[in-house]
């Protein structure tokens, strides 16, 4: 199991402020960082072995894109394994068809892939909750966005 540390500990390790670490986490630049709600506030927990997301000049490292793609592949495999284990498959509902028509009428064609559909199916089957669904979709879709 991966050992985790707080954003303050990670900040000390990098020699930057805890606020800057939280900004980097929120921007998705600290691979493996997770945000947890505690009462009305939240904390970031970071793998102890997380790489420094900054280059020598404070800019993102060149391998950040590859790291994000790796996370996307891991999320995709996790979702597929969970769906198989739970016996869940995506079945298009009438509401899905209606949503596609509405999106098309607004000149916005939304095309979901198998992983996105399975995440929705897992939520519909109550295998994951809404927060987990949003987290999985966020991690997965972050890898589909072109990063420059």
How would you sum up this structure in a few lines?
This protein has about 150 residues and is mainly α.
What does this structure look like?
The chain is 51% helix and 10% strand. It has helices spanning 7-14, 18-26, 64-86, 94-105, 114-124, 130-142, and strands at 4-6, 34-38, 41-47. The protein has a three-stranded antiparallel sheet with strand order 1-3-2. Helix 3 crosses helix 6 (130-142). The mean pLDDT is 82.
- Gap from first CA to last CA: 33 Å
Structural class: mainly alpha
Oligomer: single chain
Main beta sheet strand tally, sense and closure = 3 strands, antiparallel
Question: What would the principal axes of the Cα set say about the shape?
Answer: elongated
If you average the pLDDT, what whole number results? 82
């Amino acid at each position: 199991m991966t050992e985790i540390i707080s954003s303050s500990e990670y900040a000390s390790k990098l020699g930057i402020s805890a606020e800057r670490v939280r900004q980097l986490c929120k921007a998705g630049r600290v691979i493996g960082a997770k945000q947890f709600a505690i009462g009305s506030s939240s904390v970031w927990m970071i793998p102890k072995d997380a790489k420094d997301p900054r280059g020598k000049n404070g800019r993102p490292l060149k391998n950040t894109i590859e790291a994000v793609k790796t996370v996307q592949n891991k999320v995709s495999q996790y979702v597929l394994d969970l769906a198989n284990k739970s016996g869940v498959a995506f079945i298009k509902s009438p509401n899905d068809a209606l949503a596609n028509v509405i999106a098309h009428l607004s000149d916005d064609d939304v095309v979901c892939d198998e992983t996105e559909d399975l995440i929705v199916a897992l939520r519909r089957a109550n295998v994951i909750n809404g927060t987990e669904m949003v987290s999985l979709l966020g991690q997965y879709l972050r890898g589909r966005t072109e990063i420059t």
